[in-house]
Amino acid sequence: MAGRIEQRLKELGITLPTPAAPIANYVPFVVTGKLVVISGQIPLRDGAVAYSGKVSVDVTPEQGREAARLCFVNLLAQLKAAAGDLDRVAQVVRLGGFIAAPAAFTQHATVMNGASDLAVEVFGEAGRHARSTIGVPSLPADAAVEVEGMFELA
């Protein structure tokens, strides 16, 4: 039987993908004590980057939001692999977002809301988190967005 969070994902029409394998010398997550730290996830869909290039040049800011949301879905896939059961999540502690964009772009926070909003949709009050959002000139695999996360387990 699906747990509370799995049921919520189903209500939102979200199916978790198979967690992506690392593309370099790192692990997808580390569990230490009650914390799970998840390496940055890019907007992969069916094994391919769904949103590539720079936000405001190659993808619109709205598509950037969708990319951040997809990154959070990929974080959830890693989180399930780490925790075994998403109902064990007590708190989304922190999200870090990296937005590939030209120097004049200033809507990074709005783009990152795609991930933050989904965290709250999925976990309710426990989804409210601390956050950093940073503009960068490029990301691995030419992804438009990358999101990393830290979660507390019950």
From TrEMBL:
PANTHER family: ENDORIBONUCLEASE L-PSP_CHORISMATE MUTASE-LIKE DOMAIN-CONTAINING PROTEIN, ENDORIBONUCLEASE-RELATED. This is RidA family protein. Pfam families: YjgF_endoribonc. Residues 6-145 form the Endoribonuclease L-PSP/chorismate mutase-like domain. InterPro entries: Endoribo_LPSP/chorism_mut-like, RutC-like_sf.
